[in-house]
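ugh ok fine here u go
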Amino acid sequence: MQRRRLLLELILIQEVVMKGSRDGLGGGTMMECGW
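structure:
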């Protein structure tokens, strides 16, 4: 159950990062490279 919750949180973070990179945020693009 905990592992599944972590995966869901990672997916949410990924969505936020993708939105951030589209907005042109440097931090968002940096995080996107980490995936």
